[in-house]
Amino acid sequence: MTQRGPAEFTPPPECPVFEPSWEEFADPFAFINKIRPIAEKTGICKVRPPPDWQPPFACDVDRLHFTPRIQRLNELEAQTRVKLNFLDQIAKFWELQGCTLKIPHVERKILDLYQLNRLVAEEGGFDLVCRERRWTKIAMTMGFAPGKAVGSHLRAHYERVLYPYHLFHSGTNLRCHYINKCIRMFVLEREVPIQVKQEPVEIKEINPEPEKCKSRYKKNIPPPPVDLYVCLVCGKGNDEDRLLLCDGCDDSYHTFCLIPPLSDVPKGDWRCPKCLAQECSKPQEAFGFEQACRDYSLKSFGEMADSFKSDYFNMPVHMVPTELVEKEFWRLVGTIEEDVTVEYGADIASKEFGSGFPIKGGKFKVAPHDEKYLQCGWNLNNMAMMTPSVLTHITADICGMTLPWLYVGMCFSSFCWHIEDHWSYSINYLHWGEPKTWYGAPGFAAEQLEAVMKKLAPELFESQPDLLHQLVTIMNPNTLMAHGVPIYRTNQCAGEFVITFPRSYHSGFNQGFNFAEAVNFCTVDWMPLGRQCVDHYRQLHRYCVFSHDEMVCNMAMKAGSLDVVLASAVQKDMRLMIKEERELRDKVRKMGVVQCELFEYDLLADDERQCVKCRTTCYLSALTCPCRPGVQVCLHHAHDLCSCPVSNYTLNYRFTLDDLYPMMNAVQQRAESYDEWAARVTEVMEAKLDKKRNVTVFRALLGESDEKSFPENDLLRQLRLVTQDAEKCSSVAQRLLNGKRQTRYRTGGGNSPNQLTVEEMRSFVRQLYNLPCSLTQAPLLKDLLNSIEDFQQHSEKLLFDEVSADSVSEIESLLEEGSQFDVFLPELPLLRERLEQTRWLTGVQQAEDPVSNPCGLSLDSMRRLIDRGVGLTPHPSTERTMARLQELLTISEEMEEKAQALLKARPPESLETLSSMLTQIDGVPAYLPNCLLLQDTVNRAKEWLQEAEDLQVGGQTLVLSSVSDMVLRAHAIPVRLEPLDQLEVLVSEVQAWKESAAKTFLIKNSPFTLFEVLCPRWEVGSSLKKKMRKVKGECVSSGKKKLVKLDSMSDVERALSDSKDSASAMFTLAEVRLKEQESLCSLRAANESKLLPTADCAALRVCVCQKPPMGAMLQCELCRDAFHSVCVRGPSDPLDPEAWLCPLCLRSTKPSLDKIQTLLSSLQRIRVRLPEGDALRYMIERAGSWQRRAREVIDSYDHSLTSQDCRRASPTLSHRTTGAALYPSPGSVSFMHTQNCIYVPGLSSELEELMVEGLLLQVSLPEAQQLYRLLLSGPPTTNTSHTEHRDAITSAEKKAKRRMNREETEIRDRGIKPKSKKQRMGTEKRRERKEASVSASDVSQSEDSEEDMTQCPAKNCLQPEGEEVYWVQCDCCNRWFHMICVGVSAELAAKEDYMCVTCSTTNAGRRK
Question: Which residues form the ARID domain (predicted)?
């Protein structure tokens, strides 16, 4: 461990900072008097003017030249300067001995020789320390670690360097053996040279003449009879070559007789021991600052200052933190190793160069808007001489006191600890530049600060008793604070004032280049301190800046114009002055001084009338003696004038005592009115108990002070303060009694910042009784206090009890009562907390009540309750409930997380795992959504498994819609279901089958779906919907089965999916087939009627382009519509007798029956029913039935007719040949067919129906081609009977047709007749069919005959059903037809005559 360095500087606390308003700033002395009670406690304060107060800088910068003071920082600090002085003496001692002092190092630190010397002296001296072995203790005191033999090193260094100096000062014989040994050992290890303080000396020019140079050795001249040079130590003259001559006294000494002995001749001056004692005993010169050799202008000084700071800190001046500068300054002043020198332009007279503030009549031209600063009280040129300042009564101009001084600072330039002259106020204004750091101590700590500095640096005060008045000594504030001195600091920035108060020590330094101005002023309160200061100066023999007695007398001579408060202060000061003067004059008279003489001392300059002893400025009286002209002493030092008899002395006086008393009486008379008022104020302020006056008396005294303009002083401030306190107490007491303030409980607010506590209220009641005045509210407030105490007792009892839901009303009533008191009651927040706790417990009970909350506690409810409970004040009841809720929430969250994890598990968990989880959830009294969802999932899984089991156990063929629905439902159930894989395989196989069937049937880019191709056509033709009228009706029941209304293909597909077996599916498809036949018959009839010879071709709309027929046309064998050969693709070979179908009728590729049967076989292996499969099965059954019928028809033809004959006969037998015009008419556009077509009117209805059904089949059958060729040749020789044709119809078709015809029979039985010839319709609803299903075998012959009676004569009656069925009558044959069967609308039937197809054909033949 090395020696400890100086501790880092700790900034003292900040002094008060005041920011006056414009109203307060208007009168500087009133504002300073206002802040004085606060600011004088810290000694200094800072005042920030209002922001708009910015006086112009009026100093003549060009004329301002000054010579600064030189400041070496480590010489400023008192303790550091003591160390430097000690080192100077040690260095001088060894230098005169012919040696150079070098300071040794210990533990890599420079040894503090001053501290070592002081510690050894305090321990009893070198001999005692050695005997007691205290060197280790001294080493530890100096900061060295023990155990490193540092004590022995310190002993060696002390013995070699300091002990000879100590022996020299003590006068011990230096020739003792020990000293000789010590001197011989004078070799200092690890030494560094010390910088010795340079002191100003008088420099004399030396003439270097050789003959005047004195030789060190004796001159080589013939020896006289007696030796002229002998050694004063040994008394011998031998060894003349070793004799030295002293440069001071020419005495001779042998080099080996000196202490220490010299081995060589010194090169510089050498002094003998006698001259050495004389040199060392000379008193030191008083320390002071030297003046710099250079004269600076403001600009050149600023450049130098900024350069110094930026170079020192190696950064721009404006970027250096003030804290860093402050710490570095105190480090530098406390070290002896670094020598930093700065310059300070201090005490520059503003009278010579002009003030920084504008002056009336000055050289600086003030702008009109700045003229207000000329008369401003804060202008330092005006402040010292304003009326409230007593310095206005000093006749002379005093630089620095009544005239401002200017200060130009640079970084580290400082002003040392001092108090102002005569202990006056001072005010400093920083015009511009970097901040100035201040330190101050309050006036009451002045003597304490002086005592600490004298204790820590007594050597400095021995030579300079008035050292602190020289402004040359500084001491670290931390050191003073460590000794109990209160120190405060502040940073004064540009545009701010710093005020120091009487006898307040202050010091500081500048942060950088700046310009400041300062002046002194004195107020009335300073008067007693001013007289004390004069007495203090007399003891220190310090001169006075002005005569205090002269100033008091000048004020007394102007008693009529004095302020009453100032007059009172002057009167008190004069009384003390006259009393002291009378005692001194009596003392002098008793001494024997009889001569008296009037002398006007005010006509002399201050330095000409100073006491020769104490340097006090004489004014009232002084003693003189003829032996010492121009010399006088004050009466306190009458014995120090001269040695002449006292009778020779003359008493010079300025006033006789009889002159002084009238002056004092005049001042007293001026102050009487104020004194009388002050006496009454004192009386009422000091009244006790029942003698106290009402507050109105205090208000009257204040009013009197305002009327008579009594100045602001301590008494008036105290009276005003007491009155204000009484009024405030009265107002607060009345408010407390009235309860004017809204309660916190009602408004929800917090504590009012002005609200009293109960203890404060007790103190307030005591304060009411302790006021100097009496208040009527005091007894009433005491009763209120008793009520509050009763409330507190009741509240404490309730708070002590357990929390109960029944106590809510009681707590609320207490809160209501407590809120009426305008007092801070600590029980109120506790009662609110108890109310919240009670309400919270009630809320928990309600949430857990199964009656009010049957679902149970939800997680959000638990969290809300817990969040509310967390904010409650801890209580055992709430803590227990909170713990239970926390546990329940933890369990619930854990269950919810597990349930959510099970529901989101991939792959899904088994049903057993979920069921086991549900067993854990049972018994948890909470509403758990995920657990409920888990329960629902388990239930759905069980239902799904049961359904899957029912499907497998029933042995029925599965329906695709049911299987698909179950697969979709299984995917929505997050449970691993074993049958799901099997069902998914079935669905995928069905999908593969559908894709295979689509490839088999569908044409490339076909707009139809597979189901639309396989199922009978529901809508035929594009214009069919426009011609059909929608008939309202109800679904008619047939047996037990509720019939489904089939309005679209989606309805058909839905009906097939919903059918329970294949039979019902076949029945549905049979109904669709009938619809297909009805629609196609109507379409064919309509298309045939369009192309009749009577039709206007230009008005016709045919083909896919919906344009009139023209040119080569193609006619579809199925829909009988005509198509332009350029719009559609015709047959590849027009001569090939194949049926041509239009794009709308050609719906599939029509595969062979074998392929279709293969598809059906593969579907049957899958064992899944689907609408496409039912349609395919029905198609195969339909194809088989049609094949049988077609073979019968083919067989009925003449077998002798060969196919070749048929081919030749076809053109001749056909009524419509290739290239022939189709029904040309005059004026119409001619067009022709380009392919062979069957002549429909020549066919029977059975053959046409057979042919149409063969073309409708989406399967390629050889019978269809054969039948087409036969029909193309002509009708058969024998027709198939109607009965045989009906037998060939499948049983399902019979059932469907009978059901439709039965409805018509029921309508006919009701006797409903058509309304007119043109139309008739059934207006009543058909009766409902019986619930029992009617099979094909149950249909009787009577029912068949009934059906024949209800059919319309149309070849292919559509047998429409519904509430309204429209009929139309032919105008030729008078037969009735269904409008929908012949393709006639109600509007057309009403406007035009109708002719059936048969009649139209007959009439056409006749016309031909």
Answer: 80-170
Which residues contact residue 452 at a Cβ distance below 8 angstroms, ignoring those fewer than 6 apart? 475, 479, 480, 483, 484, 485
Q: Is the pLDDT of residue 823 over 50?
A: yes
Given this model, what pLDDT does residue 1405 score?
56
Tell me whether the omega of the peptide bond preceding residue 260 falls within 30 degrees of 0, making it cis.
yes
Query: What does DSSP assign to residue 1199?
Result: T
- Name the nearest CA neighbour of 502 among 393, 573, 419, 403: 419
Task: Count Cα atoms within 13 angstroms, Cβ side, for 215.
Answer: 10
725: enclosing H helix or E strand:
helix 714-738
DSSP designation for 718: H
Alpha helices in 314-347 (DSSP H): 322-333
Angle at 1225 between CA 1220 and CA 1227, to 5 degrees: 125
Question: Rounded to the nearest 5°, which phi and psi values hold at 1113?
Answer: -125, 155
Contact in structure between 120 and 165 (CB atoms under 8 Å): no
Contact 1345, 1305 (CB under 8 A): no
Helix 1153-1166 to helix 980-1001 angle (10° resolution) is 170
pLDDT, average across residues 1-23:
79
Torsion-angle region of 566 (φ positive above 0: left; ψ -120 to 50: alpha; else: beta): alpha
Place 873 in a pLDDT band, splitting at 50, 70 and 90.
confident
Place of tokens 């054969």: 1266
* Residue from 497, 193, 555 nearest 356 by CA: 497
Token code pair at residue 1096: 């206007």
- Compute the Cα dihedral for 1150, 1154, 1160, 1163 and give only its sign: negative
Q: For residue 120, what pLDDT is reported?
A: 82
658: tokens are 């009889």
User: Beta-strand (E) ranges in 746-865?
Assistant: 756-757, 773-774, 823-824, 857-858
For the record, the structure tokens of 709 come out as: 């303009």
| pLDDT number for residue 1352 | 79
Burial (Cβ within 10 Å: 0-12, 13-18, ≥19) of residue 1252: buried
Check pLDDT > 70 for residue 1371: yes
Exposed e or buried b per residue across 64-73, where buried means at least 16 C-beta atoms within 10 angstroms of its C-beta: bebebbebbb
> Among candidates 229, 226, 235, which has minimal Cα distance to 217?
229
- Distance, in Å, from the CA atom of 332 to the CA atom of 316, rounded to the nearest integer, reads 21
Distance from CA of residue 109 to its chain's centroid? 51
1383-to-1025, 1027, 1085, 1089, 1394 alpha-carbon distances in Å: 11, 7, 7, 9, 11
Phi-psi region of 222 (alpha: psi -120 to 50; beta: other; left: phi over 0): beta
What is the value of pTM for the model shown? 0.48
Give CA–CA dist 260/99, Å, rounded: 10
CB 1000 within 8 Å of CB 1155: yes
Contact between residue 103 and residue 110 where contact means Cβ atoms under 8 Å apart:
yes
611, 632 in Cβ contact below 8 A?
Answer: yes
Cα torsion angle, 831, 833, 838, 843, sign: positive
- For the stretch 683-688, contacts whose Cβ atoms lie closer than 8 Å and that sit 24 or more positions apart, written own/partner, are 684/772, 684/773, 685/718, 685/719, 685/722, 685/772, 686/772, 687/772
Predicted local distance difference test score (pLDDT) of residue 691 = 79
pLDDT at 506: 93
Beta strands in 859-999 (DSSP E): 926-927, 958-959
Please, what is the Cα angle at 548 between 545 and 553, to 5 degrees?
Answer: 135
Compute how many other C-beta atoms are within 10 angstroms of the C-beta atom of residue 354. Answer: 20
DSSP 408: E
Q: Does the bond joining 662 to the residue before it have cis omega, within 30 degrees of 0?
A: no
Termini Cα distance of the chain: 146
Q: What is the pLDDT of residues 287-314, one digit of tens each?
A: 445 677 788 999 999 999 999 999 999 9
